[in-house]
Amino acid sequence: MKLLLIEDEALLVETIQARLTEQHYLVDVACDGDDATYVLQEFSYDLILLDLGLPKRPGLVILEAIRQGDFPLNTQTPILILTARNSWQERVEGLKKGADDYLGKPFQCEELLARIEALLRRKHAGSNVIKIANCELNLETKQLKVSDNMYDLTRTEFRLAYVFLSNPNKVFSKEALLARMSDQYYDRESNVIEVYVRKLRKMMGKQAIETLRGLGYRFCSEKKRGEGN
What we know:
8 helices, five-stranded parallel β-sheet, four-stranded antiparallel β-sheet, alpha/beta
């Protein structure tokens, strides 16, 4: 899963990024409000960690822009506020503007991880499994079940399967898939998408992931399969 950390304290960024990477999250970083605005225009995320006291553009402004649909990501993307501003009035303001949770600084990384996991579980309606057509992706065990067959996925296979199954029938360009599977410095010339689409098709079936010439790929729900390429 891919997270965006919007934070200007360099040491805290280093600590959080290292801990989240250990837990197999992909983490992009924006160090001020302008940087965050640019990144949010270019990429989508499963969860956002947002500091309120940002240089150049306040965190609450970023929060409002996300919830108002000013960026091309899902307006319901979970947002966890990280801030040293711990007055109850500021917490209420952030929650009213659309934050899903609030963690005051300083904090322990274990608590941060627990809150991230809780928000991601809530995003999937309390379930650790995404079920689409005959496919079931277990977010905890990183296993894919297709009909009666069970597959242990590699990290990259899981990331790509998660993108597709979380967005059935949505078309993703190659660049968009690369952006969801790596940091913002991904190699646009990489053929990793083609390689792993082939791997997933061997598990899910050839018609599960459709190639749309000139547009990209989409995971087809059972209803969409067989309607033509």
